[in-house]
Design goal:
single chain, 240 residues, mainly alpha
Length: 240
């Protein structure tokens, strides 16, 4: 079966928007179903999630933000190394290009979703609340301003890279690839933001998570660089 090449994607902008709408619709249906089920359970038994998770406590939203931040980092890391693997053609022998690119795109979207949850929750958090200006403008946060600022910049770069999935047909492939190179900068920023502004960095398994993911990234990045080098060398030999 013929595989789809990145230079000639079959997915149009409309198709991608339709897919996103379908995914968003399914999520909305799931959330509404859970809300209705929870309401029915609460009416029947008096069960309350607020009491179960102590959501009225001072630090509860802080914990939710931390969990969302960690999940956003893991998904963004997976999207980054997946992108390196696609460029290195690791998956070509056993996965369709359509799947690998769509999966890469949806990983990016999911990571942005968790990062946004990580940020939005901080508006309701009582331990170290942030204002809208502190969230949108780098280096203005009262809490570890430099590393929080690095995280904000990394988020903007991630959104920029993700947007190019939807405007790929409007820009050149060279521009698409150059913008995608920024994902490396965004990942490094996200990693250092997580390490130096995250309150979970002192936990051993979180330290191992950052170490393991960064080592995997270095490995895939190195392989990707060698792939680019040999491609250029092969192209020079053909044209020369």
């Amino acid at each position: 079966m013929a595989q789809i090449r990145i230079g000639a994607p079959e997915n149009t902008l409309l198709t991608k928007l339709e897919k996103s709408i379908i995914v968003a619709g399914l999520l909305i249906i799931l959330i509404l179903g859970m809300a209705i089920g929870y309401y029915a359970l609460q009416m029947a038994t008096g069960f309350s999630i607020t009491n179960l998770f102590s959501l009225d406590s001072t630090h509860s939203w802080w914990y939710i933000s931390r969990a969302a931040g960690l999940m956003g980092y893991i998904l963004f890391w997976l999207s980054t190394v997946w992108g390196f693997a696609i460029s290195s053609k690791i998956f070509e022998s056993f996965l369709e290009r359509t799947f690998t690119y769509d999966f890469h795109e949806h990983l990016s979207l999911l990571s942005i979703g968790f990062v946004l949850l990580h940020i939005i929750v901080l508006f309701w958090e009582h331990y170290e609340p942030l204002s809208l200006t502190q969230v949108l403008v780098p280096f203005l946060s009262a809490y570890r301003p430099f590393w929080v600022g690095i995280g904000i910049i990394a988020t903007y770069l991630t959104i920029l890279v993700t947007v190019t999935f939807y405007i790929r047909s409007k820009i050149s492939m060279q521009a698409f690839r150059r913008i995608h190179y920024l994902s490396v900068v965004a990942y490094i920023g996200a990693l250092f933001h997580s390490i130096y502004s995250g309150t979970d960095t002192s936990i051993f398994w979180v330290q191992m998570l950052y170490l393991g993911t960064s080592l995997f990234t270095v490995f895939f990045f190195t392989q990707w660089m060698f792939t680019l080098y040999f491609k250029k060398k092969e192209k020079a030999a053909i044209t020369g």
